[in-house]
Amino acid sequence: MRTELNVLIKKQAADKIRKGFPLIEQTALVRALPKVDEGAILHLFDESERYLGKGYYGKQNKGIGWVLTKDQHMKLETTFFNSHLKKAIEHRSEFLTSEHTTAFRLFNGEGDGIGGLTIDCYEDYYVFTWYSEGIYSFRDDIYEAFQQIINFKGIYEKKRFAKAGQYVEDDDFVQGERGEFPLLVKENDVKFAVYLNDGPMTGVFLDQKDVRKRIKEHYSKGKSVLNTFSYTGAFSVAAALGGARKTTSVDLAKRSLPKTIEQFSINGVDYEAQDIVVMDVFQYFKFAKKKGKRFDLVILDPPSFARSKKHTFSAAKDYTGLLEEAIAITEKEGVIVASTNCSTFSMSKFHMFIKEACKRQGKQYEIVEQYSLPKDFKTTQSFGPGDYLKVVFIKLKK
Ligand code: SAH
């Protein structure tokens, strides 16, 4: 039996939860929780003992659980999960029937009503990512609900509940048929090779689909393109297919070289005509400056936080400096695509970083367009940090 517990919530937090804020924060509790198992049901009450909602206990990076329903009598079992999955599927109907895009997010945590769980589709395979042991304790009911409504070949899962949300190393296969990897998926007719049983990441970040499409269709033709923090080179592939004169991909991880060659090759792009550089991006900036290299299009998509031998990069602290480096090697009327998945600052703060960097470099600029998460990464207005992606296209002026 699952433990059930009544929990008192402080006034301000209670008001937020009443308006739909789904995260249960440690600081919201009137009294610290007694020792309780992950997955325990929490019944939340305000200080006047009015019912606020019910959720589960599951420790994540941020928060100690998620509110799942305001209905006191709702059972958090298969039927409940089934109805959430059905709604999520309706919202992605265009993807489920598309011949051009076969990889997308089917279920996006709190945006689809269940914080702590995401489900991604890769052709006929699905990857469940569990963000706490608490949500993982519901897995039998959730997999059962999923089987009732989706035809699939196989399911893989990522458990991201080691210390600070790190991936728990395991055989990630769950049920169905095992896939053969690489599995080739499509996104707006661009192919990506993915590996569903090879660590925490699969080879492509599905939240950039709109940006890759835009770069391919409107920003690449005839251009020299620098893709920094390039990982498997997904942006470079989009640019090459969009007619870039040449792409340069820079990532410090050794695996990025064979992975990028693979992504080019499956798309029929001659990788030998492209540059793929295994190097610290900050070293590369120095090298490019020394050689007088300049690019028409520079893509910046760093992780929120990274530590290399020589450098610690934190998007919240260091993005302005990163932009300055990029500006210095961008052609006079070139474009910088500045992207961040850092949820601790807003779009308006990001604009300030851009303004400051251009000012310091003595550059006029225009923001020509910007993007946040695509439709399949559904978010809820009541939870700001869920809407983490910020991408700004900056056109430099003479
Ligand atoms: N832009 C990529 C995703 C980036 S993931 C895409 O579209 O798919 C972050 C990548 O940054 C990782 O591959 C990591 O190896 C790389 N990285 C982190 N710090 C770096 C640094 N200082 N220099 C170069 N690459 C770095």
From TrEMBL:
E.C. no: 2.1.1.191
UniProt keyword list: Methyltransferase, S-adenosyl-L-methionine, Transferase
Superkingdom of origin organism: Bacteria
A single GO molecular function term of this UniProt record: methyltransferase activity
Any one GO BP annotation for this protein: methylation
Principal EC category: transferase
Transmembrane segments: none
Domain S-adenosylmethionine-dependent methyltransferase: 185-379
Residues covered by the RlmI-like PUA domain: 7-70
Xref: CDD domains: AdoMet_MTases (cd02440), RlmI_M_like (cd11572)
Protein name according to UniProt: Ribosomal RNA large subunit methyltransferase I
Species of provenance: Halalkalibacter krulwichiae
